[in-house]
Amino acid sequence: MFIVLGKSKTFISTFYKCLCIDFDRYMENWILASFGIKSAHSFPSVVSVAGLFGDEGLVPVHLQVAGVQRPLLEQLQASPSLLWLGPTLGLGPQQALEIICLLGVLLSLGAVLLGALRDSLVYLCLWALYLSLYTVGGDFLHAEWDNLLLEAGLLAALVAPCALLRRISASSHHDPVTFWLTRWLFFRLVLCTGVSKLASGDPSWWDLTALSRHFETQASPTPLAWYAHQLPDWLSKLGAVYILSAEITVPLLMFFAPVRGLRIGAFYIQLCFILLGGFSLLHLLTITLSFSLLDNDHFSSQKKKTKTKTWSQFLLSCLSFLVKLAVYLLVLFSAIKLFKLEINWEKKVVTSKTTFTRKSFEEFVKQIQDPTIWVGVLSLTWEVVAALLKCVCARGVLNKLSSLIQWAIFTAAAAAVFALSLVPYTAMAGMSGGKILPEVRKAYGAVEKYQLVSAYGIQHRMVPPAGRPEIVLEGSADKKTWTELNLMYKPDSLSECPPVVGPHQPRLDWLLWEAAVGEHDQNHWFTGLMQRLLEGKPDVVSLLQVDEAQYPFSQTPPAFVRAKVYHYHFTRTTEDGTHPQAWWKRQYVREFFPTVHLGDPALNVLLSDAGLKEKYPVQSSPDTPVSQALGLLRGHVRGLSGPLVLLTLFATVASILLLKALFSRPRHPKGPKPKSTSEHRNKKPREAHEGSEKSRAPPNRGGKKDNSEERKQDSDRSPPRKRK
């Protein structure tokens, strides 16, 4: 659910809007690129919402709605979701979810294509729609990128222009203050992710072998990952050093540096690192947030005229160059010193080894927390004071007053978001964050359910040393002959090429990847999956295979099902360098789920423990035009895969934007270029000045000759008259 069209739209909107020079339009670009992700990928959720949360899905959402007796306002306060409005509007739970998804995609597509909809109220509605799904989504919508989408959605509502305020005053002096929050979010995301790799004690990151295992153990490996897996070990270790330096050293030294060139350099360092990670929702949203390191001049296509620098400007540029050189050398020196980088000229390799201990790293994390918070405070204060000076210098009493009011409102909002973000930030690497004011911690606890700010890096997954654990589903009609139930996006088949899934994010496949390292009783939704496979529910089967020909039990559901865990490994190239016939090799590890059948007492007990037993009679949804339209739409998209729907929407949006850019290009007439008003105004005093000089000049003796020559020139310039 909520597959990632917005990621694709990230690039479309970023590339298209970054051509703009105006700072406000650049901020709109970021808004579309960050929060458009969330809303636009809502449409493919209609493809999978029935299988995940429908009445016949894995975790039916009506189980949460049934038996709720509290008043509507109390229920919304306890669990913020628009789903609770469904019964009031005469909608069933599944229909309410599908309408929420469709509203999200319609608003997001409108915001991409229509400038009038790029308003803070629109993005606030999109944030509320996603929060409604997040609240009832359970394990399927509680990933780290979901938290990031919600926080980015809140910032989008703050950064976007508000039509109500624009009618009162066109002032936008407060924009840098709210836009600064995106850089702070990007800083927390990158630094906490890097710290968690080492703070978790993952041995693969401490011995720098994580990349050699990551390519085959990531959530959605691609064919390119197979070739990257063939790289020599020393190069994979060097890549791990680059990642740790880009996520820890670079943010600390360059993200809030007063030198512009350092922030631009940090952007390209992060961009190279993120592109190596893949095209999942988290990576593409991170790319969008990285644009907060840039400024408007970086995207300007107009070259500034070179002027002769004064001595002070020359000395300032030299000082800036020396600071940039010192920081880059410090980053390089720290990588060499901390990871003992040495060149072995005989073997022509670069060796690396971690030289610090886990205890020293934990002390380092404790020491950097307070300085980084104060750097954030000073940086935000700088933006606030600069915006205040612009408001004070505004022309007109009313304009100045409205600018100051907007500045005060948005400054207070930015300060509140910054203060709340310190609570999860100080929990980095397991720190208690005891220096945070109790009032701030209490306020964070009151709004935590709204996901205004989140902690990142806490869901770090250990890289399995024994290989990629995969759950393989099997079905049988007689309990003797078993057939594997292969999923579209999982590496179940050894000979098939890994599929290219990104930027689509299949939720069921991702949860199966997470569950493979644990037990089935830790993942209650898995029991619902086995039950629906035994019942042969088409909405759930479409999550495995949209093509019925690829599903072995498309005609008759299996009578028995079970699940096993295998360890998968990428194959290696042969000695002569040729590609082997199989992409994967695997080894059986253990049983994950016992053999069950419909009516099995063991299955009923597991369903009761998972809370998937019907406690109340299921009320059928009323047959209304809305339900009929949703059923028709559901039937049309059931046979479509998520990537196909995603690419179709991406191509449609790209085509519309391209046509819009072509037809909106101004057409210059073939005649002479009309003079601008400024040139016309400048010309009048010049002519008057010239006329006064001529009047003061001495009379010309050959005036008759000059007058005749002027008349001749005028007659040559004037068009010939038609003879009657």
From TrEMBL:
Pfam families documented for this protein: LMF1, LMF1_C
Protein's name according to its UniProt entry: Lipase maturation factor
Bias (Basic and acidic residues) ranges: 676-696, 703-724
Domain Lipase maturation factor 1/2 C-terminal as annotated: residue spans: 452-594
Keyword Membrane appears in the UniProt entry: yes
One biological process term in Gene Ontology: protein maturation
Signal peptide feature range: none
Annotated compartments: Endoplasmic reticulum membrane
Source taxon at top rank: Eukaryota
Regions crossing the membrane: 96-114, 121-142, 148-165, 239-259, 271-294, 314-339, 373-398, 404-425, 644-663
Biological function: Involved in the maturation of specific proteins in the endoplasmic reticulum.
Lineage: Eukaryota, Metazoa, Chordata, Craniata, Vertebrata
Chief location of this protein within or outside the cell: endoplasmic reticulum
